[in-house]
Write a structure and sequence with these properties.
The structure is a single chain. The protein is built from 9 helices and 5 strands. It is of the alpha+beta class. It has a domain of 185 residues: Glutaredoxin, CATH 3.40.30. A 5-stranded mixed beta sheet has the order 1-3-2-4-5.
Amino acid sequence: MLVCAIHCRCNLFGRIDQREIMAGSTSGGSPQSRPTKNQRREAAREKARQFREQQERQRKRKRLLIQIGVIVAVVAVVLGGWLIIQSVQKHEQAAASVMPANMPNDGVVISEGLAVQKAEPRAADVQPERQTSPDGRLVVEIYADFMCPICGQFEQTYGQMLSEQAQAGNIDLVIHPVSILDQASQGTKYSTRSAAAAASVATYAPDSFLNYFTTLLQPGVQANESTSGLSDDRLVELARQVIGDDHPEQQDQVEKSIRDGEFKKWVKRSTDAANLTGTPTVYIDGQSVDDLSKVSDTLQQKLKDRGIDMTQTGVGASDGQ
């Protein structure tokens, strides 16, 4: 019995130990399995694929940013160029739209008593017309370039006679300063500069215009062809002289206008509109006088047709250049 009890206990202990071992094995779990070589290779491939995709996304993003930058730069350059062009065009249009005062059809109208007919600047988009007299007087129009030698001769021959007829109220004398000899002034564009200066005087000191016109055509003052012509300083100096120191405000306005070239664009427009073949060009009563030696005879006959004896006014003028 004793042996049996011990055996049974041993067997009991043995079973208990076996259960404990089994229980311990069950509760601790089996060891974690390691990935196979194929699995490791596949994982590495997947990681490499993800890295390549990330790199490709970064390259595409970088390329897109570069393209956007280039587009923005091009747009900026184009826009900047367009704005510059627009600014230049606006400036040119503004300059071209500046019209002189007291020159209703691009010419200064000198009437009875040598008074200049005052007029507001004409709209730039309105074409000039052949000048007519509101009082029905005979109209004599002269187109002159201050560098033209024949214009100087014409002034010496007919200038006094025409001024006397205007002063007496027999005619309206219309003077158009134009520019056809810019190419003869060594690149200084003297014809344009001098015509613009005359327009400055007409605008800001109109009563001095006729004196300025005749001064620029006087022998010893008139610029010769194939020279640089008078400087702007000289044009200003002569303008100040004819205006006189009693009118300092007019002197300053004219000087600023001349130095700024205020009416240079207008000179080109008015010369183009006149469609001249040469200077001086003379119209009497709307008809061109092609033979300048016949100016006095033509004028005398036109006035006679109106019952006016020109020879009773002033000294007249002999025909010829």
